[in-house]
Specification:
The chain is 26% helix and 24% strand. The chain has helices at residues 17-26, 42-47, 67-77, 91-100, 138-145, 168-173, and strands at residues 35-38, 54-58, 107-111, 128-133, 149-160, 178-184, 187-194. Strands 3-2-1-4-5-7-6 form a 7-stranded mixed beta sheet, with helices on both faces. It is globular. It starts with 16 loop residues before the first helix and ends with a strand.
Length: 196
């Protein structure tokens, strides 16, 4: 997997370009934010240039690794997951995560499967300033993380409607929130909301 980069070689999220420009304007003036990122990748790297407080949740799939190998990966990348329940990881994801791992433990990358992926019970309400929904279980991740976003915080959801239909239930949850959309130009849409 190739991560998008700007002309300066910095990692850029795979959002609609207009959403990325919005973030490039917002993040430098709001450093040290608490960020939750569903789906490890460009958003993880990009946002970590502005804050050390990024928690990334991702989903292991396909190729089988034994417990010894998995424990080694967990130890190296400081995963918070159970090897017994997370025994499958894609090789390309391993390479991606290894490239993201830094010696200063800047990234908190967690592998979760099934309902654990979008179980937000470990986080206090209003904990996060910024949430990205760009991984598995998009609807469940979106719905379950809304209470964890603080007032004035933003939640982004990418690839609408290619990978997720923004349905009536989701709309009702954020109907009183300020909403933004970046679309067109041959790119999947990115939408985001500001919590009142």
């Amino acid at each position: 997997q190739t991560l998008a980069k700007d002309k300066y070689g910095q990692m850029v999220p795979w959002f609609h370009p207009d959403a990325t420009w919005w973030l490039l304007d917002y993040l430098p003036n709001h450093k040290g934010l608490n960020v939750l990122d569903f789906g490890c990748g460009g958003t993880t790297m990009f946002t970590s240039d502005y804050t050390d407080n990024v928690i990334t949740i991702d989903h292991p799939t396909t190729e089988i690794f034994d417990d010894t190998s998995f424990k080694g990966i967990c130890e190296c990348l400081h995963y918070c997951a159970s090897p017994a329940r997370c025994g499958q990881i894609r090789t390309d994801k391993i390479k991606l995560w290894m490239s993201i791992a830094r010696p200063n433990n800047k990234h908190d990358i967690r592998l979760k499967v099934g309902k654990d992926y979008y179980d937000m019970s470990e986080f206090n309400d209003g904990h996060f300033d910024l949430i990205y929904v760009d991984g598995e279980y998009r609807k469940e991740s979106f719905m379950n993380s809304l209470s964890k976003l603080k007032s004035g915080g933003y939640i982004f959801i990418d690839n609408v409607p290619d990978q997720i239909q923004f349905d009536e239930e989701m709309i009702n949850e954020v109907k009183d929130w300020a909403g933004y959309e970046a679309s067109g130009g041959g790119h999947p849409s990115t939408i985001w909301f500001e919590k009142p």
